[in-house]
């Protein structure tokens, strides 16, 4: 059962955040809270050392502090900042955290360039009322960066310690 939670909760939250951001340009606080609360409940049950557990929470706090600064200066949305911090809790101070941040930056940059190009194309006018494309077509709104965060999280997640633990348990 614990393995199932590890394989379902994080990916579900990443997909939900991405789709939510596309549809409404918001990422509900419930997504970030679910990520943090589920990590806090699951990680000790895997036998994770308390010092490692604390470092995972510290990684989330550090990312939250950095993204809060970006939010305060208008560089990112509040939901994006909270989602990045909650994702960092699952990654901890491991190389996968840096990899996640690099993937999110790269994917986010590509998403931004593609969106800006799209907004200047004739397709933006044709899809302005499509529920999945309307925010990509509207130059008055920002970029739904939750898409980049979701894809980056899904790409890196298989490399995390919790997934490694779950796979080892299933193989035994």
Automatic annotation (TrEMBL):
GO MF term set: aspartic-type endopeptidase activity
Ranges of residues in domain Prepilin type IV endopeptidase peptidase: 9-112
Keyword Kinase: no
Source species, domain of life: Bacteria
Transmembrane regions listed in the UniProt entry: 27-45, 57-77, 97-118, 139-157
Pfam families given in the database record: Peptidase_A24
UniProt topology in membrane: Multi-pass membrane protein
Localization of this protein: Cell membrane
Protein name listed in UniProt: Peptidase
Species assigned in the record: Aquamicrobium defluvii
């Amino acid at each position: 059962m614990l393995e199932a939670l590890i394989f379902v909760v994080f990916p579900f939250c990443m997909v939900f955040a991405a789709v939510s951001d596309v549809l409404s340009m918001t990422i509900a606080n419930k997504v970030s809270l679910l990520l943090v609360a589920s990590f806090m409940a699951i990680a000790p049950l895997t036998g994770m050392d308390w010092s490692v557990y604390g470092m995972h929470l510290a990684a989330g706090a550090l990312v939250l502090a950095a993204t809060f600064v970006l939010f305060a200066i208008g560089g990112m949305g509040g939901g994006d900042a909270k989602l990045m911090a909650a994702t960092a809790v699952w990654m901890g101070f491991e190389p996968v955290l840096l990899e996640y941040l690099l993937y999110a930056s790269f994917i986010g940059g590509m998403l931004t360039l593609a969106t800006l190009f799209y907004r200047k194309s004739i397709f933006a006018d044709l899809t302005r009322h499509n529920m999945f494309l309307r925010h990509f077509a509207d130059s008055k709104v920002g970029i739904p960066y939750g898409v980049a965060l979701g894809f980056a999280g899904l790409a890196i997640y298989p490399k995390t310690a919790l997934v490694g633990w779950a796979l080892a348990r299933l193989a035994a």
